[in-house]
## 1
Amino acid sequence: MSVHQETYLKIKTTLDAAKVDLVAVSKTKPNEDLQALYDLGQRAFGENYVQELVDKEATLPKNIQWHFIGHLQSNKVKYIAPFVHLIHGVDGEKLLQEINKQANKNNRVISCLLQVHIASEETKFGFDTTSLMELIHSGRLNNYPNVLVKGLMGMASFTEDQSVLKKEFEGLASSFNQVKTKLNNIHFDTLSMGMSSDYALAIQEGSTMVRIGSLLFGARN
Ligand SMILES: *Cc1c(COP(=O)(O)O)cnc(C)c1O
């Protein structure tokens, strides 16, 4: 078994003290690794691939909270809509529309985070700050009654330069606070930022939810 139990317990203690939620990112990892963390008390798991998530949900304990953290294609929303706990990567209105439709079919309200593009790399998905603010100010979120927008999510650049990371996290936290003020909604309370390599800095900059994989499960192939 490759789960780092000691590290998990240490990180969990630190995050609990800071009131930050932990999503254990388990993509590509076998069910027994997830079960091992579950047995230590972990309930929130994050997955990137729809088929893998659907397979794991079918076999692992029913009280797991499944977070979808990958890039979600509209035509696949229907497979996770019955059970997903939080969709982190909502990066456009077409996707919002489809999540709303599938949530309605399942008689649910699905919680989502709007993904904001904060990294310098072209490859990372998300709203830019201008289109995010345009959406928020337009009132169009009201068109999606079966979607609850709970906050923002972002991925920093792939760099070890702390000053670059800090700047990107600060920018996202600033957008988060602006949207929070504008929406004035108590449910808008989640800022998902920080991964294995940068979660401490993300927390300093105001993260309320970190997504940690390799520190807990070991490196992915
Ligand atoms: C894989 C992934 C993570 C976890 O990355 P680690 O570096 O293994 O902690 C976090 N967030 C997203 C969106 C991911 O795809």
## 2
Amino acid sequence: MSITLEHRIKITNERASRMKENDTFFYLKSVEELNGARAQIDGREMIVFASYNYLGLISHPKVREAAKRAIDKYGTGAAGVRFLAGTTDAHIELEKKIAQFKNTEDALTFSSGYVTNLAAITTLCQRGDLVIMDKLDHASIIDGCLLSGANHRSFLHNNMPSLENILAQSENYQHKLIVVDAVYSMDGDIANLPEISHLAKKYNALLMVDEAHSIGVIGKTGHGIEEHFGLENAVDIHMGTLSKTIPSIGGYLAGKKDLINFLKLTARPFIFSASLPPVAVAAAKACFEVIENEPELIEQLQKNINQFRDGLQKMGYDTGYSETAIVPIMVGEEERTLELCKKVNEDGIFICPILFPAVPKGTNRLRAHVLASHTSEDIEQALQIFEQAGKSLGII
Ligand SMILES: *Cc1c(COP(=O)(O)O)cnc(C)c1O
């Protein structure tokens, strides 16, 4: 028998109330002002380690300018679905830019990254097909599988024998789709693309990669996972969001012309949901241009990542297999995770805890996002705060 709705409401609200009483509810904070790596939260200035604004593009003058121009030209919304009256020249230009940036034939945008994954998987897979996922894939990929009606299996995280084992047992499926995150959103490690792509080809599966946290972060010039590994044509379906390094809203799929056209004509989340506001689209396009014109931002981000992660590791913190701007600070037990979070927040670090069930049981952690706009002093100050807090709680 399933538990009742009344019970689910009660236990959820009680858990949140308990956390609020203990001053350990770190969610839904109201950010009053965001200036690069600093923010005003509850009237206090804090160093931000909780934002996806990896390259600091939120406040980039070229991006703001593009958004203002779009408001003047189009107003606030497209007032329609893309398929009917909601496509503007700004949408077409952004999609061209994404295709060029990702070195693909064509691209299509959707109203969020979450919806993009739903659209891709529910349109490309149906009952009788198989979706193969990494165990740590993003929730939107799992939800896409469930909604598609296809069978789905997951392999152990970034474990290639486990992936091959599933592929070898799945020869009977005519259509197989492998979906992985390029950079894992809770762990900051990078998918083993060379091997995954090799296995996809060997077993005749399509490969889709979610680049939410890799665009603008990995690859020498920020073009993502293929650039990082020096590969071309390793991925069939490139997915990304316009909500992280690209601080706007939306998501995209990029790939072969026929495939993108098929999505345009049949993806239900594309056809039955309103178009992105042109202002969001114009801002996103400007961001891709800034990434290409200012590669020094990516270099700065990489420097900051190394300073922060190496500093934490030297103190004895466990940062898992992170190689990117996402640096998990592993604690384990929930209560200790919340205590650490409380201490560092009191000392001026804005960072959030990631708890079960968002991550596997017993792997509770704080998740830090390093930004290009952190100064070396910001990072040094944060490291000192983490050192003090970690020592006083016996975590390091
Ligand atoms: C954030 C994220 C998404 C969802 O993107 P939104 O634009 O926030 O809807 C999808 N996949 C991954 C891996 C993500 O980290």
